[in-house]
Amino acid sequence: MSATKEERLEGGLIKRREIKEEDGRSMFYYYREEEGGKDG
Amino acid sequence: MAELRWNPVLSEWVIVADERQDRPVLPEDSCPLCPGVLEVPEEDYYIVSFENRFPALRSEPDAPSLPGDDFYRTRGRRGVCEVLLYTPDHDLAPAELDLTRLQDLIRVWKDRLNELGSKDFIDYVYIFENRGEEIGVSLYHPHGQIYAFPFVPPVIEKELENARNHWKEEGDCLFCRVLEKEKGFQDRIVYENEGFTAFVPFYARFPYEVHLYPRRHIPDLSQLDGDEEAQFARALKTVLSKYSRLFPEDEGEFPYMMVFHGAPVDGGDYDYFHFHLEFYSLKRGAGKIKYRAGVETGAGTFISSISPEDMASRLREAPSELD
């Protein structure tokens, strides 16, 4: 099962938590709000 | 075999995780940390942290492979090991990260500390980075690691005990006293700004060992305010930048370990502790490595072949990208 949840942090950072389907390991992607979700 | 084993002679836990021997050897031209290759399925990312595929500690470990007893104790190796990628850019050394990204990285470290520290089976969150071939790092891609331990590691325990005793006996913070002594002497200071001081300590053990202290007494990273995060980013970039330019005649990167020492997350009262970073290298000169041999490893006594004052002087002279 995979699940995704977003959380707003200080300083314009967004954390997206993703539980990977294959092996259950968690991934935590962080990105800047003003960058639209990708690189900064 | 995979478990924690208690060493009754030194009163400390040892992690046995022999599956780590089976880690795959990847092709030389492939970086598993680059976007879309192996570890990060997304085609791009800004900063990402994920659980290590071959961890020393697992959040859901198997039962110990040996049962142990009251004397030779064993327990499941329950914890979390994460890999933290600073940037998708494979060729950017940590010293070359811009200040905005470094400040964001500090916020990510704070978030990982808070998230991992909130787990009831975690007592200590240890943030660190190993960099350079001499430290045993084969992946060039800029990254650090986080070990969330189910116990407080022995070096931290020792610092806590000494800080607690100093607090009780002298009525002040051991680390604030160190900072006061270093600021009074000045010759071992490498860099200072409003929030942070970097210095080679009076008692440095490793080549080019640098300690980075916040000037305000705070027990852990989570208490840094916004201004301090910015000052921390500048101090971090300055130290790493000076490291990278210390021996320009050498090929390859300056090898270092960067470790965070903060208060445990086991619910105790650690007001007496002072958050700080420590950097150690094994490079004692251009083309010269200081090995951790019998005296250092077996006796725990370090022999420094360069005086801390000389190290600080050379680091002050080394240019920084922010100069």
What's the domain count of chain B?
1
H-E order of chain A:
EEE
Mean of all residue-level pLDDT scores of chain B: 94
Q: How do the helices and strands follow one another from N- to C-terminus of chain B?
A: EEEEEHEEHHEEEHEEEEHH
Helix content of chain A: under 10%
What's the layout of helices and strands?
The complex is a heterodimer of chains A (40) and B (323).
Chain A: E1 3-8, E2 13-19, E3 26-32
Antiparallel strand pairs in A: 1-2, 2-3
Chain B: E1 2-7, E2 12-17, E3 47-51, E4 74-75, E5 80-85, H1 99-117, E6 124-131, E7 143-149, H2 154-170, H3 174-185, E8 189-192, E9 196-199, E10 210-214, H4 226-244, E11 256-261, E12 276-280, E13 283-285, E14 288-289, H5 294-299, H6 308-317
Antiparallel strand pairs in B: 1-2, 1-4, 3-5, 5-7, 6-7, 6-11, 8-9, 9-10, 10-12, 11-12, 13-14
Helix pairs in contact in B: 1-4
Short description:
The complex is a heterodimer of chains A (40) and B (323). Chain A is built from no helices and 3 strands. By secondary structure, chain A is mainly β.
What can you see in these coordinates?
The complex is a heterodimer of chains A (40) and B (323). Chain A has 40 residues and is an all-beta fold. Chain A has one domain. Helix content of chain A is 0%, strand content 50%. A 3-stranded antiparallel β-sheet of chain A has the order 1-2-3, with no helix packed on it. Chain B has 323 residues and is of the alpha+beta class. Chain B has a single domain (2-317), classed as HIT-like (HIT family, subunit A, 2-Layer Sandwich), CATH 3.30.428. Chain B is 26% helix and 21% strand. Chain B contains 6 helices and 14 strands. Chain B has helices at 99-117, 154-170, 174-185, 226-244, 294-299, 308-317; strands at residues 2-7, 12-17, 47-51, 74-75, 80-85, 124-131, 143-149, 189-192, 196-199, 210-214, 256-261, 276-280, 283-285, 288-289. The longest helix of chain B has 19 residues, at 99-117. The chains are: A mainly beta (40), B alpha+beta (323). Strand 3 (26-32) of chain A pairs antiparallel with strand 3 (47-51) of chain B, so a sheet runs across the interface.
